[in-house]
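Let us work through a complete example step by step.
Step 1: write down the sequence.
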Amino acid sequence: MNYLAHLHLGGQYGDFVKGRLQGQFSPQIESAIQLHRSIDRYTDSHPLIGEALSRFTLTRRRYAGIVLDVFFDHCLARDWALYADQPLERFTSRVYRVLAEEPALPGRLAQIAPYMAADDWLGSYREFAVMEQVLRGIGRRRTRPEELGHAMQELRALYEPLSEDFRMFYPELQRFSNSQLAIQL
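Step 2: predict the structure and record it as tokens.
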């Protein structure tokens, strides 16, 4: 899962903090990071995700997880009303406000949060065309960016089966996340 799904499920910040948590953040932020990591472990080991990843060609398999994360955020934004009880615009506005008010955002998040809000990254995931820009941006931080650059053609061909994979998987992920949140309380 990428930014939108993690924020929706309550597991913020995890992509921006590596290594052990040793009290360098508030307990609330550390709990969110732990949840993020649990969500990633659950997702990475889930059979539906394995099936979705197997849909990609072998040449794209190396980056298929990244592509799938971004695509699943598109699916969530596109079908937001099926999975959330408030409009996407209200949710993203609240997220951007929380990020702006947090004095100790971890790592790279502190640098990108203002751009996220200014360009409404989370809300823009509704538009499939935005996936190309997102993948290009991720590719700039990789050693072989061309693999991500060519992923859009494959995503177009796999749009419906991957959308169905998302529809089957996300409710399970929501249940998992809710159970983890209940444990943390």
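Step 3: interpret the result. The radius of gyration is 16 Å.
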